[in-house]
Amino acid sequence: MKNSLWVVILIVLSFMGFMMGYSLPPMYEVGLIGGSGKQDVGLKSEISDEMEEYYKQLLKDNE
Fold first, then answer.
1. Which of 12, 15, 19, 40 is the most exposed place for a label (fewest CB within 10 A)?
2. Residue pair 27/33 in contact by the 8 Å Cβ criterion
3. Do residues 12 and 19 make contact, with C-beta atoms less than 8 angstroms apart?
């Protein structure tokens, strides 16, 4: 009974360790772990003023 309990505990801990190691790299990439707290939320706008006016004009033309 004691040996089988230790085998089950060892298997469960091994599986949990594998899953934790498997899930950490994506968390580092998106900044959930170890990232700086000063990250902007949302999309970065790299559209120039000319392009913004162009798209506004296209929107008006479609109406």
1. 40
2. yes
3. no
Q: Cβ(31)–Cβ(39) under 8 Å?
A: yes
Q: What pTM value is reported for the model? A: 0.40
Residues 24, 33: contact at Cβ < 8 Å? Answer: yes
- The DSSP secondary structure of 3-63, one letter per residue, reads HHHHHHHHHHHHHHHHHHHHHHHHHHHHTSSS--S----S------HHHHHHHHHHHHHH-
pLDDT tens digits along 36-54? 555 555 555 566 788 888 8
Report d(CA 20, CA 8) in Å as an integer: 18
Return phi, psi of residue 48, to 5°.
-75, 170
